[in-house]
């Protein structure tokens, strides 16, 4: 080291600044998150404008470089906007067996959706417990046997008619058992 460079050499104490944490913290009234995203003024104005649209059909598209805080800014602004609005109803789509592409809409008060789900699941469990009891009932078994006998009788009559018609018209009828 030259004599000239030794003259300008600093010690570690001279390089250390004694700064308190209070120097870098913002007062509570300024630390509301709106000043965190410096340089995003146009983006915030555009998002404010988009979020202020009350009419259906308006969308907001956000584009920007990865890591610039775009998603964080949007989430914070959406959270702030949502906290000012009343909580919306919950939607439940119910299958429409007549038109599967147009389900029925069921609207329940906010928070009641979980209660509805719990009750429906309980109802389904009760039905599943009830099915074996119903199907093992002797009255049900008698009805089922009567329906089976009636069906087999009508089936046999229909097959007899087909066989008779085939014989009258000189058609060979072959009954093939399907496994």
Radius of gyration: 39 Å
> Helix amount, in percent?
40-55%
Tell me the distance between the termini.
100 Å
Shape assignment: elongated
Give the tally of β-strands.
2
Please identify the structural class as seen in this structure: mainly alpha
Please give the order of strands in the largest beta sheet. 1-2
Q: Please, what is the average pLDDT?
A: 84
Uncertain spans: none
Assembly status? single chain
Concise account of the structure shown:
By secondary structure, this protein is mostly helical. 51% of the residues lie in helices and 6% in strands. The protein has helices spanning 3-7, 12-15, 41-52, 70-84, 112-135, 138-168; strands at residues 90-94, 104-108.
Q: Would you give an account of this structure?
A:
The protein has 179 residues and is mainly alpha-helical. It has a domain at 137-168. 51% of the residues lie in helices and 6% in strands. It is built from six helices and two strands. The protein has helices spanning 3-7, 12-15, 41-52, 70-84, 112-135, 138-168, and strands at residues 90-94, 104-108. The protein has a two-stranded antiparallel ribbon. Helix 3 (41-52) packs parallel to helix 4 (70-84). The mean pLDDT is 84.
Keywords:
179 residues, mainly alpha, 6 helices, 6% strand, elongated
């Amino acid at each position: 080291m030259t004599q000239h460079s030794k003259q300008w050499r600093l010690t570690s104490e001279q390089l250390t600044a004694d700064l308190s944490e209070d120097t870098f913290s913002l007062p509570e009234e300024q630390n509301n998150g709106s000043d965190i995203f410096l340089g995003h003024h146009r983006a915030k104005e555009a998002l404010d404008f988009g979020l202020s649209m009350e009419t259906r059909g308006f969308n907001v598209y956000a584009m920007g470089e990865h890591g610039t805080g775009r998603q964080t800014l949007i989430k914070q602004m959406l959270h702030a906007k949502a906290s000012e609005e009343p909580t919306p109803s919950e939607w439940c789509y119910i299958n429409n067996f007549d038109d599967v592409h147009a389900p029925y809409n069921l609207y329940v008060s906010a928070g009641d959706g979980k209660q509805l789900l719990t009750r429906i699941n309980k109802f389904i469990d009760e039905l599943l417990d009830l099915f074996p009891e119903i199907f093992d009932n002797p009255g049900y078994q008698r009805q089922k046997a009567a329906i089976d006998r009636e069906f087999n009788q009508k089936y046999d009559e229909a097959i007899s008619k087909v066989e008779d018609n085939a014989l009258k018209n000189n058609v060979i009828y072959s009954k093939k058992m399907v496994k």
